[in-house]
Structure formats: structure tokens, C-alpha cells
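Fold this complex.
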Amino acid sequence: MILNRRSLMTTALTLGAMKAFPGLSYAQARPLVFATFTGSWEEAHKAVLVPAFRKANADAAIVLDPMLSVDQIAKVNAAKANPPIDVMLHDPGPALVAIGQDLAEPYPVEKSAYYKDLIAEAQEPMGPAPFFQVVGLTYNPEAIKTPPTSWADLWKPEFKGRVGITNLNSTLGTGWLVEIAKMRGGSEANVDPGFKALEELKPNLAAVAANPGALATLFQQGQIDISPGNFNAIQILKARGVPVEFVAPKEGAIAFKTTIHIVKNSPNRELAFRLIEASLSPEVQTTLMNPPYLIVPTNSKVAMGGEIARVLAKDTAELKQKFVFQDWKKINEQRSAWIERFNREIKI
Amino acid sequence: MGAAPASRDVTSYGMGLAAPLALFFLVFFVAPLLQLLWLSLHNDTAGLHWGLGQYLHFLSDPFSLSVLGSTLLLGAEVTAVCLVLGFPIAWLYQRVGPRLQTIIILIVLLPLLTSVVVRTFAWIVILGRQGIINATLQSLGIIDTPLKLLYTQFGVVIALAQVQMPLMTLPLITALGRIDPNLDDASCSLGAGSWRTFFRVVLPLSLPGVIAGCTLTYAAAITAFITQSLIGGGQMLFMPMYLYQQASTLQNWPFASAISIIFLLAVLAVVSVFTTLGRLSRGYGGA
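Structure:
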């Protein structure tokens, strides 16, 4: 392509006009845009969900746009009338923000073939949950011979300078703090005991990672040997030969619903619905449950097996008994205050 | 030659040539900046009520001010390290043969050819508990338990200094190259020792390069989000991370806008100090 002044000017003017008159921007026939998460999620969706969707929908055009939940919200918020995304994926905290800011379309439940088969916790009329994320304890079995059993193990003196956590920017960090608070008599409305516990954890802390992804690096580098961690993230590390194991603590593993939403004003509403249907289908969920993805299914017709049955739960009944779901509506009310408090108090 | 209009002043240029760039800056730099300013002048997150509340919140909060202070201090530390390490390299460059010059310029430029993310991860490997530094010191028996290098201010300064070093070295090489080598000899023949020659002749004449290098390094160091957050970790808060937290995690755009405007003004203030020094140095160099 040859760039000259004229073509540059045309481009600049077109871009300017697109900003000024958003209605002009796209022909209606743009491909379906699915905002997934980065890393293992993107891999899983590219390999399983997207092919299943295309097969069922005559090779409809679809684009994956991997980014964090909060970035999806910012992007849709910046162009509400003509959103650049059709399907969003959210952790529980951001999901409530997106719904609160009127960015999501109600899910056409009556049209859905699979919605009624989802376990009760996954049935969300503003966007069902096709996946769970599970947070428990992750540790290096070469350095720690007796597997930990409880969140309280992180405070053991033998782990001095070996523990890693993340700050509260992530769902993982915030959800874990709430669980620590609960362990010491607090709740979603009262995390004071959690902050007190963090203060006592300081001698053991080797690192406060800026995001959950950084925790994985720290395990690889031997910088930390134990941390609260995400079940799926650990499977990826394990597959790459890093010595790391996951255990569900006896207080219960934290389960985050990952919900999937049709973006309000999407020009591709029907295709968006069909992509979400594919994600809820037993076929896709069964494939995603097997290695290497090991994603916990939410469709009750999918029988749990393999590593998930061994480490987490054999069936839906056991899953409900072992998983802890948190009240993110309550958490969101105070989250910014907690982040501010963490900024101030946690210096190691 | 004779066809050129005689009235045209040779020092004037057609402004039309600058128009495309000016338009580009107007659309993609000035307009978003004004939007940012507009957003920061709202008291609520929805952007409905006008007011200076976000600025008051920041400026009356000792914690926010300490974040700003530590960020500006970080920039100063990195700039100092780059200057102290970069100057000898630039000086050496002017005094070696062409083959060594090629090698030096390659070493200086090489970091620019690698992604910042890769370079930062390399520093995690170097500074880690079982990293190169700790492993070497332990095998030599100098230390028993690994030193804590990662997630410290020290680590952030060292990693940033390496990442930003070319921005300091290149202007210095240019500035030192402009100094006539005869001045050195003249100074020596008039009885000055090498140190005196350096401080009275070379350093003052190279000041424009020093100022340019410091400005570039400083601006790059304080805004280096990736290196700051990966080497500094989640508990060390600098302005870029503070901004990210407010804008992305909390969706508090007006406060995030106010933070960026304040950060911008603080950086402009520091840079204008550098420029003033630069203007003084030109007078000094010419004297």
C-alpha cells in the first residue's frame, strides 16, 4: 500500500467522521465480535467454542477479541450506541457493573434450549454462566511435602517468605480477601478481620503480584511456593512441567461464575445468542471439561470426570457442597474503599 | 536562479508543510486531552455534576500525594543511574576506533530492539530468589539466605535504568561528538589535568546532551507501567498503576482523569526545569 498525503487525509477525515457520526461506522454485516479473556480462556475458546459455533451456524464470521472484563466495559461504555463488541465475558464483580450501567441485553431465556439444564447458580437472566472459575490453594509439591488443607496454612511459620498473593485489582485477590475475612468471623459486608489477617501474614509474604498471571511466573522462578490460585491457571503450568499442585481448602474452594452476555444495541443479536447457546451446550462443556482445559461445567447434564472429579467434585451435588459462592453485589459496594485501604496498608 | 522572487526571506518557510502534522496532533492529541480535562471537572462518576472535587480529593489526600512524590523520585533515581553509567560509555565511544564504535553502538541499541515485556521478564529471572545474582552470591559463600531484590525499589530502579539506558546514551554520544577534540589538547597544554579538563571543558560543553538525555529518560521512567508493576509488584504503587486502578478496576473515570492531568502537570513542571537548565547551559557553553 502506498501512503501519500491524499490517502492519509482521506483516512484521517474518515476516522474523524466515524467518531463524529458513529452510525456511519460499520456496515451491519460486520462479523460477530466475542470478547473473551486472555491466556487459557482464549486458547480454549478458539479451539472448542468457536469451531462448535461455526459448525452449527453455516460458518458465520466471528472474531475473538481477548481482553479483561474491565476493559470490555470501558470499550462498550465508550460507544454505547454502536458497541464494538457483541458478546462479553465477565467475572461476577464486573458483570454487576456492566448490568448496572445498562450495557447488557436480557438473555432470551424462553428461546434457549439449555438454560433450564444449568445448575441453579448458573441461571442468570441477564447472562447465564457457562463456566466456573475455582480458587483454592496452589503449592509447589517439591518444596512443600505435606499438602496444605486450609487457608489458615498460609500463616504457618514454616512458610516465612514463601507466600504469594495478588492485590485487589483482580477478582482473585478480592474474593480471597473476603474468604479470609469470613474465616475470621467477617463477611462480605465486613472485611476488617481479613485486613487484620493480612497484617499478620506480612512476615510470610514473598510477593504481592500485580495480577494473577504474575503469580504463575513467580512459581516458575521459585520466588513463591504457595499462594491462593486459580484451578485452570495451574493446569496450564502443570502441563508445561512446572511442579505445582491445586487443593480445595477445607473451608471450601471459592467459585466465581463467569457469565456471558449479549451486549446491548449489538447489531448481531441473533448470532450472539447462538454463540452463547453453543457455550451452554453439553457437547462444548464436555470437551472443555477434559484436558488440557479442565473447565468446570455448569450444565447439569454433563457428568463430571477426570481431574475435575478427582480434585474438585464428582457431581453437581458435591460441587454445591464444596464450592463457596460470594455475594458480589455486597462486595462491589465497598470494593473501591478496600482497594484504597490495601494500597495504604499492605507494604512489605 | 534568477527566477526566484527576490523579496522572499530565506529564513521563512511555508507553514503549509506542517499543516498535516498539526491537524493530526489536533485530532489525536489535543482533542482527547481536552476531553480528559472536561471529564476530570466532574464530581460524580457518571459525569453529570461539574466541580473541582476530584482535584481536591487528590490534593488533600496525603496518600495520593505520596504516590505522586514516590513516582517523581523514582524518575530522578533512574535518571541519575542512567547518567552515571551512560556518560562513560558515550565518552568512550568518542575515543575508540571505528570497529569498537560499531560494537558500542550495537550494545547501546540492542535493548531497543527487544520488547519491554521480554526485557522485564529477564530482570525477574536475574533478580529472583533463585536468580542469577542470588545463585552466584550463594555459591561464592558471600550470603546464606537469598537477598530480596525483586519487588523492591532497588530492583525497579535497576531494571528501569537498563530499559531506558539508550535514551540517555544516544543524546550523550551526539553531544560529545560535537565537541572539538582540539579543546582537550588545548586545555592540557595550558596546564589542566585530565579531571580538570573534564569538569571545566568537556562536561559544560556536553550539557545540552545531558539535559536532552535526562528529559527523555525521566519521562520514560515514570510512565513505564509494565516494568514498574512487574518488578515492583502489586504493593508498590506508582502513578501509572494508580491511574489504571481507578480507570479500569473501579471505572472511576473522572478521578482517573484528574490523576492524569495532575501527573501531566507535574511532569511538565519537571521537564521545564530541565529545559531552563538547558537554556542556562547554552549560555555557559558559549561563554
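DSSP finds twelve helices and no strands in chain B.
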